[in-house]
Design a protein that fits this description.
The protein is α+β, with helices and mostly antiparallel strands. It contains 7 helices and 9 strands. It has helices spanning 32-37, 49-58, 62-72, 83-86, 111-115, 136-142, 170-173, and strands at 4-10, 17-24, 29-31, 94-95, 98-105, 147-152, 155-160, 163-166, 179-185.
Amino acid sequence: MQVVVKQEIKSAYTGRVLQVKKVINPELCVDTMKIARESGVGAKEKNDCVVRAFMAALDTSYDSTHAFVKKYLKRVNRKGTFTSSYLPEIIGKVKNGKKIKMYGVSPSHDFLIGYKFKGAKVITNPKYKKPTGYTLRSFIENHPIGRYFVIVEGHAVAVVDGKLYGNTGEGNYSINRRVHYVVECK
């Protein structure tokens, strides 16, 4: 299945095509906000992309994941998570039978390997000769199998078996966001 498709933006008045843009195939996008808001805890939350991304990557309930992130990543209700500060706390832990391990960091974030993510590797896009990191689009294309928690610019998503788990409409606007670091759950 194609990861990227072209989407036409038409004028509501004339019906003419105004713009054609590339988006992540809607069939490969899962709205975690909808899933989270069905939970009693999730209905009251905001700024919970890290909780929802771990929920998808670990295949756990929202409430269970919320408690896990609150305990280990020091998340305060309705506030964002300082993931890079506390992520080393959960590397090596097992949740729902899945071990959380550092998969790698972008070449632009390789300084994190020395003092936070010991043993991590630099992940580069094989499409380029120079060491270049992934965009969300290229990461999905190159990782069709596996469970990944992915930190992109100011946001967290999950990529599970080639599907993007994120906000409503995530595939329409975050296609070229740069991947900073990736955690694998297996």
